[in-house]
Design a protein that fits this description.
Elements (H helix, E strand, L loop, with lengths): L5 H22 L3 E2 L2 E2 L2 E3 L6 E3 L8 H8 L1 E2 L9 H8 L4 E6 L5 E6 L5 E3 L4 E2 L1
Parallel strand pairs: 5-9
Antiparallel strand pairs: 1-2, 3-4, 6-7, 7-8
Length: 122
Amino acid sequence: MKSSGLADKHSMLRPWFLTLLISAAAHADWKIGTHTLAVSKCPHGHCLISTSCLQQDCLAKRAWQKKHKAVVGPGGSNPGSAVCQKIHQAGVVIAMNDQGGSEAFCRFADGSLITLDGLWHW
């Protein structure tokens, strides 16, 4: 079956566009209040994690490696939010960047952070 070519072009752009968005997010200065966060792309590139977790063990890294099954929370909330709220001594925080963007992170008892999409899988 012959494709129209248009769908092929869009499917080729999608991974590039997502990589561009993640890359832009990783290079933004994320802040909670006046505190600047030191975050980097996760090893697979689909989330942000505390930069210190890339060199040493931390609670955010352990949670990322575990990858919890997605469970949509009450009212259709983000599955990562539901996972974060179930983890002992962890909570959801919202960070802002200089461009006016926002990102939800799960903050753990050791101070490490990971974006909510790094906590779950379908």
